[in-house]
Amino acid sequence: MKAVFPLMLLGGLTLSACTSKQETKTTTTSETQTTTTATAGNAASGGACMDRIRKDGLRVITSPDYPPYESTNEQNQIVGFDVDMVNAMAEEIGVKAEFTGQGFEGLIPSLVAGRADLIAAGLSITEERAKSVSFTDPYEKTKNVIVVGVDSDLNGPESLNGKTVGVQLGTVQADMAAEIEGADVRTFNLFSEALAALKSGQIDSMIVDAPVGNNYIKVHSDIKLAGEMDGASKALATQLECTDLVAELNAALATLQQNGELEKLHTKWFSDQAQ
């Protein structure tokens, strides 16, 4: 998809999960880093985090309301690009992963509190977040898009002055919307709630990642795109001290990039725009 620039790709394991309002468990694993650098050699020798993860498994949290990155299917399983990617990375590392779904805003607090080992949720790299978590190498860079009703005449960020803009709590899109002069920003716990508000006429627009926006307009005929905005690189996130885990994830990500698995997953989830 035109707004997405994949950096690497991964294969998949099967995982089962719960809805976005419940916690769910699955098997998956691992990620990579950009702000905290560690060597693959350090990871291979183990370390404080990897020793425990190899014994007990990798605990992964996500917010499964953001297709095609992560969502729940009819069988109540967490599926998506991030899920398949992390599963493939887990397989490379040789660990099992457990997926739990929760609200996006609580992901970093849960990680910092030690209730998880990894965030896999289309998480954009920011300087503020890097104060609390360690990022892997980025696996993708995307633009953001404005989504409006199909009959709307809005076009571009400047047209949102005086208009209501829906965003998800705790996201970079919420930060971007706050900078739009005159915009009336409405926050939602889930992007799916913002979409429902847009379709029912409660808000005038919403801002999402380009792949997500493109997925929305393929599924919903009553909405359309109304301009692009700047984007950011996405990465997985670990606890700050888990440099050994970051190194393992980066090595696995590099392997998936080199063997073509990352691109296969990208084609599966973005070119086909699977829900």
Kindly describe this structure:
It is found in: Cell envelope. Residues 57-272 form the Ionotropic glutamate receptor C-terminal domain. The longest helix has 16 residues, at 243-258. Residues 1-46 have low confidence and may be disordered. The strands form 4 sheets. Strands 1, 9, 10, 11, 12 and 13 form a 6-stranded mixed β-sheet that branches. The chain has a 3-stranded parallel β-sheet with strand order 6-2-7. A 3-stranded antiparallel β-sheet has the order 3-4-5, covered by helices on one side. It is built from 9 helices and 14 strands. It folds into 2 domains: 4-139 and 235-271, D-Maltodextrin-Binding Protein, domain 2 (3-Layer(aba) Sandwich); 142-232, D-Maltodextrin-Binding Protein, domain 2 (3-Layer(aba) Sandwich), CATH 3.40.190.10. With 275 residues, the chain is an alpha/beta fold.
Brief summary of the model shown:
This protein has 275 residues and is an alpha/beta fold. Helix content is 31%, strand content 24%.
List the topology elements.
Layout: E1 4-6, H1 40-44, H2 48-56, E2 58-62, E3 65-66, E4 70-72, E5 78-79, H3 81-93, E6 97-101, H4 107-112, E7 118-119, E8 133-135, E9 140-149, E10 164-168, H5 172-178, E11 184-188, H6 191-199, E12 205-209, H7 210-219, E13 223-234, E14 237-239, H8 243-258, H9 261-271
Parallel strand pairs: 2-6, 2-7, 10-11, 10-12
Antiparallel strand pairs: 1-9, 3-4, 4-5, 8-14, 9-12, 9-13
Helix pairs in contact: 3-8, 3-9
